[in-house]
Specification:
Elements: H1 41-52, H2 56-69, H3 76-89, H4 93-104, H5 112-128, H6 138-157, H7 169-193, H8 197-210, H9 215-227, H10 233-245, H11 251-266, H12 273-285, H13 300-308, H14 312-319, H15 323-333, E1 337-350, E2 354-360, H16 365-370, E3 376-381, E4 416-428, E5 431-440
Parallel strand pairs: 3-5
Antiparallel strand pairs: 1-2, 1-4, 2-3, 4-5
Length: about 450
């Protein structure tokens, strides 16, 4: 995800978006009848020869000759335009940037439309060239690109429809939107590479205003949010989900990356819980470009606080509460390990390598002793299945995660059970906690010729 993400969003010289509205043959403005031209006839003829040349390499040679002969010519603004266009045609992007920058540096000597076109040529050239982030002047290059892109966006936003353009103001504004978006997009890319993520977010959001259905922009915005310090994770998740919904390139990889980021943010004990969250996020983001303030995903710190304040009694109560209480509790505690859980065996289900004790846990020993229905399914391995054997009943895994306890077969209905284990799932109705990786306390397992001593007292 850290590789350069400057895909081309600006246009190349072959399809400059300004062409239908602004482009015009480069012609030297004629002097008024009572004014003497600011250039000589040989100077003018040399320029026109370069202007008429179709081969870009030959054009560049003629332009070089012109500048050598007339270094202070008043025709330089037109020469610089020819230069950057020819260099774009030859894909010499650094030189195209050089001459676009020279033209822009002329300031008030050139009109706004010419400035905008030069800025666009500069921005598209930087996007197209092979940028080296290890170059000594890498930051300077990126800063110049960012500043040029922002200047182009601002100038174009304020640019009035030319009187010669035969279309409504609204239609003109619509045609300018993707061009403005390309400027902001490139500014956002440059800011991201500069690790200036807050400004990258600002620029990319501005780009999305004019191109709300651009999956690449949404993807870059998501990365910028996530890389902020501190990360704006929720907004980042939302933007990445938008990118997936908009079918950005490598959609499956982006979706996998989003899933991994949510997992890292929550640090869940049960990875599979993130799938429902991801699906919900994708559905919601498909209908809204901006994350509503009501949408949230709990952080690892929030879930840790729930986990630290919980015990088996509160877990059962909270999981039966329903709504957000149940959702948050399960996110926090799925996969959590609990020591010294006590209960009474209500029933048991045995298979070749595992036994499921249907047990009950309550608030007091008396409550446990009086129980007739189970609220816990306690899975205990009694043997290690041989490699390649068929799975046990109920689709159990083929290898024991902890050493098996064959002696637990001596436990039976109404016996006390005390164990440590991991919560792996629960059924809301009828309520049932499911335990795996269980280690039964040997002291409650009857001797071969005897029975257990009753419900052990709850510790702590």
């Amino acid at each position: 995800m850290k590789k350069r993400i400057l895909e081309l969003t600006a246009v190349t010289i072959a399809a400059l978006a300004f062409v239908p509205l602004f482009a015009r043959p480069i012609t030297v403005q004629a002097a008024a009848q009572d004014q003497k031209p600011s250039y000589t006839i040989p100077e003018y003829n040399a320029f026109q020869a370069a202007n008429a040349e179709k081969d870009p390499a030959a054009k560049i040679k003629l332009l070089d000759d012109f500048v050598a002969k007339y270094p202070s010519s008043t025709l330089l603004q037109y020469v610089y335009q020819l230069y950057y266009q020819a260099y774009l045609q030859t894909k010499n992007y650094p030189k195209a940037i050089e001459y676009a920058d020279k033209l822009v540096a002329m300031g008030d000597k050139i009109d706004t439309a010419t400035t905008i076109q030069a800025l666009q040529a500069r921005v598209s050239s930087f996007s197209a060239m092979q940028f080296n982030p290890q170059a000594p002047d890498a930051n300077a290059q990126l800063t110049k690109e960012r500043d040029a892109a922002l200047r182009g966006a601002k100038l174009l936003e304020a640019f009035p429809k030319p009187a010669t353009v035969k279309m409504s103001d609204d239609d003109f504004a619509k045609q300018m939107k993707p061009i403005i978006a390309s400027f902001y997009a490139e500014a956002g890319n440059a800011d991201s590479l500069l690790k200036d993520y807050p400004d990258a977010v600002t620029a990319l959001k501005s780009a999305l205003v004019d191109k709300p259905d651009d999956g690449v922009l949404a993807y870059r915005l998501g990365l910028a949010y996530i890389n902020m310090s501190p990360p704006q994770a929720l907004d980042g998740f939302w933007a990445l989900a938008r990118a997936v919904d908009l079918k950005v390139s490598n959609t499956d990889k982006v979706k996998d990356y989003l899933r991994s980021q949510i997992l890292s943010y929550e640090q869940l004990g049960c990875d599979n819980l993130v799938d429902a969250q991801l699906n919900e996020l994708l559905q919601l983001a498909a209908n809204s470009p901006d994350r509503p303030s009501s949408y949230t995903i709990p952080s690892a710190d929030e879930l840790s606080k729930i986990s630290q304040s919980s015990n088996i009694l509160t877990v059962i109560s909270d999981l039966q509460a329903g709504g957000d209480k149940t959702k948050m509790t399960w996110l926090a505690l799925c996969g959590a390990e609990f020591p010294q859980v006590v209960g009474k065996i209500i029933d048991e289900q045995k298979s070749e390598a595992v036994i499921h004790f249907q047990a009950y846990f309550g608030a007091t020993p008396e409550d446990i002793q009086a129980a007739t229905t189970a609220n816990m399914d306690v899975k205990v391995w009694t043997a290690t299945p041989p490699a390649g054997s068929a799975p046990a009943a109920g689709g159990e895994t083929q290898s024991a995660p902890i050493p098996p306890q064959p002696d637990v077969v001596r436990l039976s209905k109404d016996d006390a059970i005390q164990f440590s284990g991991k919560l792996v799932s629960f059924d809301p109705s009828p309520f049932m906690l499911h335990w795996d990786q269980v280690k039964v306390d040997p002291t409650v397992i009857p001797e071969a010729a005897g029975k257990g001593k009753g419900v052990p007292k709850k510790k702590g």
